[in-house]
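If you are new to this repository, start here. Below is one unmodified record pulled from the training split, so you can see the exact layout before writing a loader.
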Amino acid sequence: MVIDRGLALPGDRVPPTHRAWVEVDLGAIRNNVKAIRQLLSPSTRLMSVVKADGYGHGAAAVARTALSAGASWLAVATLEEGIRLRAAGIEAPILLFGPTISKEEIEAVAEHRLQPTVCSLAQAHRFSEAGLGVIPMHLKVDTGMSRLGVAWQDAQHLLSALRGLPNVTVASLYSHLATADSPDLLAAAQQVQRFVELVDGLETERARPPLMHLANSAATLSAPTTHFDLVRVGLAQYGIYPASHLRDAVPLLPALSVRARIVFIKTVPPGTGVSYGHTFQTTCPTRLATVAIGYGDGVPRALSNGIDFLVRGRRVQQVGTITMDQCLIDVTGVPETIEGDITTLLGQDGTESIFIGEWVKRLGTVPYEILTTLSPRLPRIFC
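And here is the target side for that same chain:
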């Protein structure tokens, strides 16, 4: 969606009381899921990963969109995230990535029909002994991530033990790749080989669970041999490539924009210090605009003096230290700017765009961190 000169959103979707917001293009997410599905065999299912509030995009809206576009599973990290999806009326199967420990958590998993991850016989015993009916569970295998999961050498034995427990059924066996987004796939290849050996062994014993899955977004885009029965797609469905070398795999559309209003404009003389610490000083008469967004909204303070905004389709420099609720931009080169104009921090305005990669490079981080730290106080506007 293109914003017309930064003055208003199409259809006036944003109330004038909103000082700043996150705009989510659900059509882009639908496009991305459909495009990714084209990479898969007809028998391979797609799991939409909507943890951390759909990577900041809004979990329920993303889930509904992904399911309508061809996803058949959802995944979250925490119990609360799964419960919120059920409260939103979503009925698709939901995999819970994080471990479930307490009796109360186990009861909530059963009540809300979530499907837990288990990494040990002791964890599975807790579900079995709870007597809450048959609970589908997913056995996590550590093939090289070293975070969660039973060691890959012990997985076959554990799976056999799980099959003997009452009130337990194994819905899938899965692992997670640590370096699938790296151009050097040596470590990933070792993980894949371990997983393949495990799959082969289970098939030989006719003990293969209904679903075997390994691929994250990077592997889904680059390695068809990792697709197995299901792929788990997170970052790619939001239109962001896990690594630059994967850009040719499939066309993806960024779904998220961040916008904020200009609330004050003034002209200051040369030599004027700007914002806390005077980390920027003007060298000529400068027209400064105050924008109603700051690090309290998820715009990192470390970006101060290092990023551009879009105003009326043109790039302008952010100047001075970003504060909790506001920041400053130099609009000297866009003299027609007025109070109330909409600025774009991430997204498109006219023919200009600012992509999240600019922030990633400046911060030395990953897009996941930027997306998931956008504050809940920024309303999500869906279009």
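Two things worth knowing about this chain: The radius of gyration is 24 Å. The chain has two domains: 10-20+255-382, 26-239.
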